Amino acid sequence: MSGRILRIGTARALNTLGRQLLSVAVGWELYDRTGSAFTLGMVGLVQVIPVVALFVPAGYLVDHRDRRALTALAALITGVAGAGLALASWQAASVLSYYALLLVLGCATALHSPASSSYIASIIPRHELARAAAVVSGMYELAAILGPAVAGLLLAVVAPSWVYGLAGATGLASAALYRSLPRPAPRAPQASEPQANEPQASARRDWRAGLRFIFSSPLLLPALTLDLFAVLFAGATALLPVIAKDVLHVGPEGLGVLRAAPSVGAIAMALLATRLPPWRRPGRVLLIVVALFGLATIGFGLSRSFALSLALLAACGVLDNISVVIRITLEQLVVPDQIRGRVSAVHSVFIGMSNELGELESGVAATLLGAVPAIVLGGGVAVVVVGVVALLWPALARMPPLAELTPETRTAGPTAP
Length: 417
Known about the structure:
about 425 residues, Growth Hormone, Chain: A, disordered C terminus
């Protein structure tokens, strides 16, 4: 089973490596060509549109088709998008051409996120899911370290088209590795695994099942809300080309190091987590780390020291890793298997909105206020969001250890419209 977890982690890490290469290269090249922070914001918008538009069919497909095949297809599309960007860069194509290819990349994300998450839960036993989440998260962070660092070094010596080409190759390798994994066997719900609050037949057909489940969960909804608004406002990734070039005055190598710093902190935390006992109050921990994430973002915005900026970004990575592991494990444990794909699809919308819309928000705010005020204000908003979530969902702070959670059958809270 450990070998299976390692192969899944490697496949997802290769996919992540390619996306990181693309992200750094696109950000640097487009900002270098246009000098516009708004252009960087549009990079996020065009990638989030497919995530929001396709979450319904993506969730349906994940719950009704081969999850392994869908995950491999999404990785293949990522590789194709990388090859397309290499050609566009080589031909000095228009910025609109880049947006079109990033739209394709967003389509791959819309499918890969729910498919890969549900696939892991389909072939890994429940008692190993927490360990699998930690391993996969750690390998993700390792790829997120290597990707920006490699991209920064390459951009200093070769044209961006070579970086895009390397990203395309990692996508193809990821797809091949996914195909080498076993196909998940059909699994009927167990007696100890109660189903969601709806008739079985309609639950499997109704795409709204995932949306209703999340909006009725007293634990999953606030956890996703924290992630959505914290990253939406406090994420500074989109503005790193601006900070690197105009504030800290470092080149593409410096940008690569800045992009890698959060992942260095995250993988250090992932390694440390293997020696720490499980969190006794994971919900309370989640609230604290998101608040600290906002404060670290404020510090990064105010920093004029390259070393201090790196340290604060690494701290953000430590805090984000704790949040990610808690949130992913929570989802895997409380969601009934028969609606897992649709819940994961909705979850991917939350993640896509927080990451890619966060890039748009950063670009717009930086255009209106300047990059530094935009980052500082965003960190402050994240801290306020933590207080609001703690007041609206007190059950989150009282959440028991993750190992004690079971699929939710009776949930409380507001229902989706």
